Amino acid sequence: MRKLALSDEILLSIEKPARYIGGEVNMVKKDLSAADIRFAMCFPDVYEIGMSHLGMQILYDMFNRREDIYCERIFSPWTDLDQIMREQNIPLFALESQDPIKKFDFIGITLQYEMCYTNILQVLDLGQIPLHWADRTEEDPIIIGGGPCAYNPEPLAEFFDMFYIGEGETVYFELMDRYKENKKNGGSRREFLEMVSEIEGIYVPAFYDVTYKEDGTIESMKPNNPHAKEKITKQMVVTMDEAYYIEKPVVPFIKVTQDRVVLEVMRGCIRGCRFCQAGNVYRPLREHSLEYLKDYACKLLKSTGHEEISLSSLSSSDYSHLEGIVNFLIDEFKDKGVNISLPSLRIDAFSLDVMSKVQDIRKSSLTFAPEAGSQRLRDVINKGLTEEIILKGAGEAFQGGWNRVKLYFMLGLPTETVEDMEGIAELSEKVAEVYYEIPKDQRNGKVQVVASSSFFVPKPFTPFQWARMCTKEEFLERAYIVKDKFKKMLNQKSLKYNYHEADLTVLEGVLARGDRKISALIEEVYKNGAIYDSWSEHFKNDIWMKAFETCGLDADFYTVRERDLEEVFPWDFIDPGVSKEFLKREWQNAINEKVTPNCRERCSGCGAMDFKGGVCYEA
Amino acid sequence: MKLRIKFSKQGPVKFVGHLDVMRYFQKAMRRAGVDIKYSEGFSPHQIMSFAAPLGVGLTSNGEYMDIEVHSMEDCKTMMDQLNEVMAEGIRITECHMLNERAKNAMSLVAAADYTLTFREGKQPKDLDAFLKGLLEFVKQEHILIIKKTKKGEREVDLKDFIYELSVQGETIFMKVSAGSADNLKPELVMEAYYQWLGQTCPEFAFQIQREEVYGNTGDEEHRILVPLGLIGESLE
To answer: What are the pLDDT digits (tens) for A260-313?
Structure first.
């Protein structure tokens, strides 16, 4: 029987002790004496969030397939356990062996959203590992960052020994081999970092110096070590069916956010929405074959016992074999007690037919993501969803018995006018009108249209990386404009409007496009007690505001400032495939309200073709 | 076809709560390929019920659940199939076919056996005297405890719900009333004893293990306690 790191007394004192015990179905158990490398995979948030992340499961399974690597899991302790661990000086441990994480060779931390950055420091701190790479000794684990936020690693540059830019399936094994080689040769930590600096996709912050201009922007970023590359190229799986795939995902004991089999049908996106970082950095679109997915779905459901399966990708409607896989899932699993959960699909005859099959009597919400309230603004952001499409789709759904619609919007988009903002309420009203135009006997009660606004945050490697971001006050003012407009709608009783937290959005904006100076800010807020910033109940804006003052940093420099086309950005040393010239063209197209066709309609020369795969090479 | 399944729960999975154990078994049935029956209606779910929820932190050698299946090979095969997909610490120990008119496990529950062991550092200074005193305590005509409720304090007599209590070495054994009507938690007995001693029961003093769950095949006046696994099996 496994020995736990935490005593019974502690586990019985805290919320959801099963977060911390490991031992789940399909958890990997290995003999430590046979493992040359101990790798801890970390999702810096609570277990239920981290265990819902597909990428982590992929890497966990991939590493553990190698007999010489034992990969274990780490999650952030929740606030109640965090306090106890600090009071009793208990080191953070991995779930599998319950060993302290400082005993590991590597800790790989996935960076999924900016507001988990303080949790990264929590993990290192509770792990009793020095926060700064400069302070780590030969005995300390090597800290690796990866995931989507690694496309701008600079705010975290002080805390990580290296970053892996791109998809984990490609060069991690080479990195592990170099580690064993270096160790066998009696090489130092620095020698190892120099070795891996030469691997494509690996960025070692220590080997680059950044200098700044008088105005605070970057003068230059140059290698200070002969092993370091000028450019870090994204690493990518070209042929999806040849990538590693999970055979036996870990099945959590407690209910996690995504308590289901997640079937990744493809990576990348063809749509080219200009606000979307993922849609740019995961180019080109690469699909799994239908046969692969059928086989995979059967295996995953069998090895987990999950009662639900869902499709996953940035734009599942664009998957070439969507009808094939959905019909297969229905035919194969519907009668075996398995729910098929569909992502927000383009509403058309096929998807309504499918939804009626999987939802039977219960008609849950339809979801549309117009993102902008007017066609003009939807053209600016290159969101190819027209009012006509939305209203036609909603109409067909209403005829089919649905009576709930969710609409997702963003506020604060570049070039946004009052007319665009008010268009959010007007579009919602039109959706309700479509419902009430149906004869009463054919309707299913009263319609409910819920509109939701997030606030726009410009991201690296998007055409909007040059864009000015709204201040908190501007965001709220715009939300009030929308809210007031909703109150003037004829069917306002059928409409509802929600908007996001503005304070959090501003900080996200700082972290998203931040430079190395931001490291000190993150450390300052962490030391003043900020963790779990992405949870509104634990977010403490005043700690952040005070930290800006203490560090002598101006949030507006990172958010409100309009950027020159020639400015050197903190992330410019990374090559994600899409070129800066392409992004500049798209930024200009946005200003000109000009639409760019999707990748299957016409190639826009983004640069991703250099990867020699995916949609760029479709017949 | 109705089945009664007995399982044990040992080790770290004692921190998995009852609702999560239910969800765990739903997935285990699918992993094992059990041809389980689903309820009808808008939200079909597996027909599965548990006899007596076990508290977080308790271990058990005597947990029961009833399921209904469309088909199966035999009980041995069913056990093997399930044990093939169990998490560490959960083991299927018995499988019994029930007759179609058998009452469901939860409604049958009448008593349960528990063993209590002091956790490290929680033992009283004079353990021997403590345990001797406990045996004297339960011989009293009334066993009173002050229970705190929302409306203040209330005095409860536990005497009639303690069927057996003995000491084996340093382990306390209890057979107590269980079920929806008169469910007695072993911790409450110990709390009553500490109160009687004029002391406070230390938090987390005991590791408690459930050993068995019983149904009553007699009546209120003359209890005949039979393990749930042995009730309802005959095919009349």
So the answer is: 999 999 999 999 999 999 999 999 999 999 999 999 999 999 999 999 999 889
pLDDT of A432 reads 95
- The closest alpha carbon to A203, from A144, A124, A130, A117, belongs to A144
Q: A22 in the Ramachandran plot: left (φ > 0), alpha (ψ -120 to 50) or beta?
A: left
Main-chain dihedrals φ then ψ at residue A169, nearest 5 degrees: -75, -10
Nearest to A114 by CA among A521, A609, A550, A569: A521
Tokens of A91: 């080191």
- Give the list of residues 6+ apart from residue B233 with CB closer than 8 angstroms, or none: B4, B96, B97, B98, B99
Best mutation target, B22, B30, B82, B116, to test chain A (most A CBs within 10 A): B30
The answer to whether the CB of A101 falls within 8 A of the CB of A107 is yes
Do the Cβ atoms of A67 and A37 come closer than 8 Å?
no
Kindly give the pairing relationship between strand B2-9 and strand B90-98.
antiparallel
As a whole number, mean pLDDT of residues A181-198 equals: 96
Q: Is residue A366 exposed (0-12), middle (13-18) or buried (19+ Cβ within 10 Å)?
A: buried
Residue A137 makes CB contacts below 8 A (sequence gap 6+) with A130, A189
Q: Which two tokens stand for residue A177?
A: 């081999």
pLDDT of A487 strictly over 50: yes
Joined together, the tokens standing for residue B3 give 């089945």
- pLDDT grade, residue A79 (50/70/90)? very high
Give CA torsion, residues A303, A304, A308, A311, to 10 deg: -60
Kindly report whether the peptide bond that precedes residue A284 is cis, defined as omega within 30 degrees of 0.
yes
Select the more confidently predicted residue: A451 or B220: A451
- Integer CA distances (angstroms), A279 to A510, A602, B75, in order: 21, 16, 53
pLDDT of B234 higher than 60: no
- Contact assignment for A361 to B42 by CB distance below 8 Å: yes
Q: How far apart are CA A421 and CA A409, in angstroms?
A: 10
Cα A163 from Cα A231, distance rounded (Å): 13
Q: Would you mind telling me the total number of residues written for chain A in this entry? A: 619
User: What residues have CB less than 8 Å from A552, skipping those under 6 apart?
Assistant: none
User: Which of B15, B27, B207 minimises the CB distance to A21?
Assistant: B15
Look at strands A37-43 and A69-75 and give their pairing: parallel
3-state secondary structure of A582: helix
Residue A56 — φ and ψ, nearest 5°? Answer: -65, -40
Contacts of residue A1, Cβ cutoff 8 Å, sequence gap at least 6: B10, B11, B12, B88, B89
User: How is residue A336 written in tokens?
Assistant: 């075996």
| CB of B141 less than 8 A from some CB of A | no
* Range name among A104-118, A198-212, A540-554, B89-103 with the lowest pLDDT average: B89-103
How many whole angstroms separate alpha carbon A171 and alpha carbon A165? Answer: 10
Residue A618 CA to residue A613 CA, distance in Å, equals 8
User: Stretch B90-95: mean pLDDT, rounded?
Assistant: 97
Six-digit token string for A74: 């780490």
Interface check B56 vs A, CB under 8 A: yes
- Our CA-based measurement puts residue B67 at a distance from the nearest CA of chain A, in whole angstroms, of 15
Identity of the residue numbered B59:
T
Q: Is B133 helix (H, G, I), strand (E, B) or coil?
A: helix
- Chain A residues lying within 8 Å of B54, measured CB to CB: none
Phi and psi angles of residue A557, each rounded to the nearest 5 degrees, phi first: -60, -35
Digit-coded pLDDT (tens) for A375-385:
999 999 999 88
Residue B90 pairs with which residues in a beta bridge?
B9
CA angle B223, B225, B230 (to 5 degrees): 140
